[in-house]
What we know:
2 domains; mainly alpha; single chain; 0% strand; 7 helices; 434 Repressor (Amino-terminal Domain)
Amino acid sequence: MQSANELLGKRIRELRKKAKLTQEQVAELLGIDQKHMSRIELGKSYPSLDRLIKISEVVGVSLPKLFAFDHVKPERELQQQIAEMLIQLESKDLKRVFRIVEAFLDK
């Protein structure tokens, strides 16, 4: 299981790339060096709240969205989490989910 730091780092990297920014560009905007930015993305350095706020502004998301990293969990964890969610669904919703998944498999 990955640590919160590693998950946050992956999420920051994902959002940085989505914003079409390099580590160097983000580091410059944050006033840190590129090596420090790399350590944040690798989960080896945890940024302060002020820096997290600035990172969220630079990549163009709200601070809570910076922590929306369930989807970057390892595949096995995602499968287990999805299975647990499916158990909680009512029959009609389960059928909807089935059709959605089926559509993805029919690509």
